[in-house]
Amino acid sequence: MSSTVPTAVLRLAVAMLVVAAIVATIVSVWPIMVVNFFGFFTVQSNVIGAVVAVIGAIRLLRGVPRGTAWAVVHWASASYLAVVGIVYWALLAPLGAAGGVPVPWANFVLHAVTPVLAIVDLLLSPDRDRPPVRLLPIVLVYPLVWTAVVLLRGATDGWVPYPFLDPSQGYGVVAAWAALVAGVFTGAAALLRLPIRPPRP
Question: Which of 198 and 82 is assigned the larger pLDDT?
Answer without folding.
Answer: 82
